[in-house]
Amino acid sequence: MTSMPVLQVSDLSLTYQIRQGEVKAVQGVGFELARGQSLGLVGESGCGKSSVANCLMGLLPDNARVTGGRVLLGGEDILSLSEEDLRKYRWRRIAMVFQAAMNVLDPVYRVGQQIIEAIEAHGMETTDSKARQRVADLFRKVGLDPQLMDRYPHEFSGGMRQRAVIAMALSCEPDVIIADEPTTALDVIVQDRILREFKSIQMENDMAVIYISHDIAVVAEVTDLVAVMYAGHIVESGSTADVLTAPLHPYTAALMSSFPSAPSGRNNNAARRYELMLNDDRVSQAMPELAGGTGPIIEVEGLIKRFPVSKNLFRKPTGFIHAVDDVSLTLARGESLGVVGESGCGKTTIGKLLVKLLDPDEGRIRVRFPASSNVDGTEMREFRRHAQMIFQDPYESMNPRRTIYDIVSEPLAVQKIGSVMDRVERVSETLTSVGLTPAADFLFRHPHELSGGQRQRVAIARALVIRPRFVVADEPTSMLDVSSRTGIMLLMQQLARDLGIAYLYVTHDLAVARYMCDRIAVMYLGKVVELAETEELLRNPLHPYTKALLSAVPVPDPGHRREPPNIRGDLTLTVNPPDRCRFL
């Protein structure tokens, strides 16, 4: 590591022009980064982290304007470069792992070919065969089977797409990599593998890395320096050990205190908890405690879902991915059931089956809303009123042409609930409850005008505005900072108590699962390998895969060092799997 900075940011300020006026997104931000160093940029959603990253990449939107400062990369001011010169810099000198992987990958091109084009465009390889071999090596490094190179983005799970984007960022061996929430969509085991490999590649190539993250535990494990952002300003910076061990600014201390952890259990602290709680009079009558033995509202028995792989000359599938394989579950009113496991194990598929976005190949799903267990025809509308889903990628699930009010009020309009004024009031209350305040500032914005975390809150608001009985929450807090995350989890727990909402909580974050869930089901390659009460499962895990998951959970302690988790299974076994245990 050399002392000469490869990247210098001095007094950077930028604004956005929106309908309501000018927003000062970044104000006077400055830091330096030498080769081999890593900086963690942390803070809550909307604080300006991603705006700084987009400015460094020269990817600011048309309504953004840099009002001051300099950005020197290798001594050259990026802000003064033409668009043509910036294209030469991107990927070769400075690259970025974007937060929303699906928005980076072109849906009509094969994933491997997109990375090959980046490699060849910057002269990293002279022939297509060498470039293809380079991509195959990169796929292995990030935990993807090279056979997946010829698949399209929609054929990848959320975590698999994120790994592909990481491979793309590494493809041209840049001087600086900006990792904007690089492991948000990844389970803890793949996250552990990616971060270790990322660190190894960084040291091998003497690269500088900026980690933009709301996950303090990840920042504690992989960075040398940390800068805490709040409302566009850096409020505290220094070595990671100093800042996280003995924070000086009250906001940094609040972030640390609100971090949920798997080992320590539930923690009701939130840096901004008071903004995220429902008013006491929001519900006129609280639901009484459920009596023991209350029957389930959802019963799943022998559920199977397969997806065909490639097709042969006669258009017959050559194999099947066993996404969900003989899964049985029950869910009671007001209960939260966590489904955890690594990317591609079938968690999201189960959620989509339960809200009838997919049909099972075999097995039965019984529901107690409406009364009939066979939901079709006219009953489907009633079912949709009671069953909602919070999607993993909020941007992908929103119409970019519609306003936030249109998006959140859509379930109310479809179900013909209330007058227009009633809907405006209900939407405003729900936006406030998920931390989008003042609500009036968000009603008529569009999704692209919000940060990733703000879009995630909109997705949560859309699912909760109709007050459903059952919600599939697919990574609902993965893009939120820790202060907002705790408040959102408190809100969801309160709604479960007050309205009797049952949650199927799909997550790779065991700390969040411990905080939110009454029971946890651990999935591996389409199978539920362990199911137990939350505290019992986390204190006394029986299956070796559950133990591996727990060993991979990072903790917000810069001095803590973990051994790599011991994983023996093979992810490729989801295609035509053997009858034996797939983990062994």
Automatic annotation (TrEMBL):
It comes from Geodia barretti (Barrett's horny sponge). Keywords: ATP-binding, Nucleotide-binding, Transport. It holds the Pfam family oligo_HPY. It comes from the Eukaryota. Residues 7-256, 298-550 form the ABC transporter domain. Coiled coil: none annotated. This is Glutathione import ATP-binding protein GsiA. SUPFAM superfamilies: P-loop containing nucleoside triphosphate hydrolases. PANTHER family: ABC TRANSPORTER, ATP-BINDING PROTEIN, TRANSPORT ATP-BINDING PROTEIN. InterPro entries: AAA+_ATPase, ABC_transp_ATP-bind, ABC_transporter-like_ATP-bd, ABC_transporter-like_CS, Oligopep_ABC_C, P-loop_NTPase. GO terms for molecular function: ATP binding; ATP hydrolysis activity. One of its GO terms (biological process) is peptide transport.
